[in-house]
Specification:
With about 170 residues, the protein is an all-alpha fold. It is built from nine helices and no strands. It starts with a helix and ends with a helix.
């Protein structure tokens, strides 16, 4: 079993440190939402791993104490998810997409030079692409573009972003 913090996100077993699979993509997507929520509250996580400073309940209690809002962890994670999708939609408007979600070529070619479990390994390109596709699926994004689907934006109350994206696509094409 892994720590209580990760169990709060539905992860009860450790994720293999070197394998790129659905569980790792899910952990990344959920962690990204959590960190996004923290960023929106201007919580600094530059020097420390956020999991070691704030567990989920701490964050919920901090928000309640400072705002008076009776937010739940679910609502905070939803806030983070909305923010991740809004950032992604901004990037889409600026012309970024799936082709930009790629690691530097050297990581597929040159063995990693560290002392951890990845020492001497390269990242398998096909596994990376499959993990990226899992990540898009978990987020409800278009697998062909890597951008939020209209359905996902509407689900998150961000339907107003759709027209902005479409108008920018018209201007750039």
């Amino acid at each position: 079993p892994i720590g209580e913090t990760m169990q709060g996100m539905g992860f009860y077993d450790a994720v293999d440190p070197v394998e790129l699979n659905f569980e790792k993509a899910k952990l990344f997507a959920y962690s990204q939402r959590y960190y996004s929520a923290l960023d929106s509250f201007t919580v600094c996580n530059f020097c420390f791993n956020t999991w070691s400073i704030y567990n989920f309940q701490d964050l919920v209690e901090c928000v309640r104490a400072t705002t008076g809002w009776q937010y739940t962890l679910y609502e905070l994670m939803l806030l983070g998810e909305r923010r991740v999708n809004l950032v992604r939609a901004f990037n889409q408007r600026e012309g970024f997409g799936r082709r930009d979600d790629m690691l530097p070529e050297r990581l597929f070619m040159d063995p990693l030079d560290d002392n951890g479990p990845s020492k001497g390994r390269t990242i398998d390109r096909d596994e990376f692409v499959q993990a990226r596709d899992h990540y898009y699926n978990i987020n409800g994004w278009n697998p062909d573009t890597g951008n939020p689907s209209e359905t996902k934006l509407k689900e998150l109350g961000l339907g107003w972003v759709i027209d902005i994206i479409k108008s920018s696509e018209t201007k750039t094409s």
